[in-house]
Amino acid sequence: MSARRSRRAQPASRPEELVVAALALQTAAGRRILIGITGKPGAGKSTVAERLVAELGERAVLVPMDGFHFPQATLVQLGRRDRMGAPDTFDVDAYAALLARLRAPGAATAPGFDRVSEEAFADAIAIPAKADIVVTEGNYLLTGTGGWEAVRSLLDAAWYVDLDDDVRLERLIARHEAYGKSHEAATAWANGPDAANAALIASTRDLADLVFANK
After folding, report:
1. Beta strand 157-162 with 133-137: parallel, antiparallel or unpaired?
2. pLDDT over 70, % of the chain
């Protein structure tokens, strides 16, 4: 699969449009498909992905990219802890390897991520053999360097979640606070490491097959 779009990104603004699009993709493929959902930090990727999978029912499963964060000890050793969430703070090779396995039918497991401890844990997500739609969400699904290009090539479709930046920043700061950061620390992180990551992600928007206008 090419990382370049062959047509203009399809717009969507209602959750039910995503359900229709996912079902159409799977019907056309006639096999298990992988749909990637990306967007800036705080844009609502997780919520959109969770809602989509809930609407699709037992035939769908959600596999977030967050389970492939490097362990805290590894980030410290590499000198990357102060920018956790950047592209090189994930095990992209392991993530791509799992997606490659999931393209084939059969049961599998995927790691999860605890936002309080900020650690991944193995075998947290069960992917049943009957699941014919796998939804994965994360920041760098359309990034074309650093090993992430392998991820895009494994997706049957990549969707971008868009949200007004003022709203997004407000929600992002609130999320950081909910997981233990002070308001000052949450604001600094949102305007520091998160902002740098958001700029990179925004540069990939035009590579998406569909752009979902979140609210």
Report:
1. unpaired
2. 97
Q: How far apart are CA 137 and CA 49, in angstroms?
A: 7
> Which positions ≥6 away from 55 have C-beta within 8 Å?
15, 16, 19
Domains of the chain, residue spans? 10-213
What is the reported pLDDT for 37? 98
CA-CA distance, 6 to 10, in Å (whole number)? 12
Task: Report the CATH number of the 10-213 domain.
Answer: 3.40.50.300
- Model pTM above 0.90: yes
Q: Which residues pair with 213 in a beta bridge?
A: 162
Enclosing H/E stretch for 24: helix 15-29
For CA atoms 46, 164, 152, 31, the dihedral sign is positive
